[in-house]
Amino acid sequence: MTGLAEASDRGLRDAPRAAGGALSPHGDHCFGCGPRNPAGVAMASTLVDGRLTGSCTFDRKHQGAPGLAHGGVVAAVLDEACGSVPTGTGIPAVTAKITVNYVKPAPLYRPMTVSAHLDHREGTRKLHIYARLELDGELIAEADALFIVVSPDHFRAHGAEDGELPFLGV
Question: What's the confidence (pLDDT) of residue 26?
Answer without folding.
Answer: 67
